[in-house]
Specification:
Layout: E1 4-10, H1 17-30, E2 34-39, H2 54-64, E3 71-73, H3 76-79, H4 86-96, E4 101-107, H5 108-112, H6 120-126, E5 128-132, E6 151-154, H7 163-172, H8 182-191
Helix pairs in contact: 2-8, 4-6
Length: 196
Amino acid sequence: MPAAIGILGGTFDPPHAGHVAAAVAAHKQLGLDEVRVIPAGQAPLRAGAPVASAADRVAMCRLAFAEHPWAVVDDRETRRAGTSWSVDTARELTREHPDALRVWILGADQLARLDRWKDVVELCGLVEFAVLSREGISTLPPPSLATVIRLSVLKAPEVRVSSTALREALRRGDSPRNGLPLGVARHIDERSLYQA
């Protein structure tokens, strides 16, 4: 039974080196037993549906984290109908691992809009948060959450890559190998994903 679980949610469309770096930083710096990588079915703050199918995004996450035995790809949100609310996942993980430390890993850009997440005060009671610092972006929580959030700041070399930019490059026919783990790049090629 893990004593400390990291939770890394996202659309992972596609998963990239920045996602892996965040998980590695949290695993090492917080002494986590495992990091749950949880692709969203439909992320609430994202406009439009993911480009790649849920099955492809789960497969790409498994490939992206294949070298990290402590990373567990958890497809629960892709099997859940409707919007993927983080608080629902936190409730489930609390029931499954009531005695574990649960740490939600997120980027500084997500932290800035955490006050827009559903039932966020309840969420703050179910999990701690770890934010990956990025140059020029505050690691302070929204003022409305300052008294309820438990927050750690992670340090990691900055990885300048985004799923949006990777999808755009692939749509143009470029091969952006820098930001993509090798297995993910192969999967995208084999399945002809993100092509116009």
